Automatic annotation (TrEMBL):
Top-rank taxon: Bacteria
Keywords associated with the record: Membrane, Transmembrane, Transmembrane helix
Chain segments annotated as transmembrane: 35-52, 59-77, 89-116
Listed name of the protein: Histidine kinase
Organism placement in taxonomy: Bacteria, Bacillati, Actinomycetota, Actinomycetes, Pseudonocardiales
Organism: Actinophytocola gossypii
Amino acid sequence: MTSTPRPRPLVGAVVAVALAALLYAMTATSTGDTAAGSGLAVVAIGVGLAAAKHHWARITVTVLLGVQLLYWLPLPLSGEWEFTDNPVVYVLVAALLSVAGVVLLFGPSSNAYFAARRAERAGRVR
């Protein structure tokens, strides 16, 4: 049985998610808040890579990126950092990559891919 090829938008989503998670981890390191940010960022990288094959993983990565976004987005608005400081730039770029990654994860070609994967797995089980 042949496996369904991954669509390019899904591959792009996985790359965007991994880069966003990396930037969140860099933000945590730059601000000295390594305990809060790095743990979820590392998990998001792993789950983002797993999202290329499993439907549950794209839901999990969406939740994890949402948590990261809600945690870090107030940083640029706090006034504590200048707009050109590294942590602010990391957060803003990571936020854009997070949104782009999630949109691509749930795009039509990605939905079709996950439906085909489910059908393949259902065929193997029976």
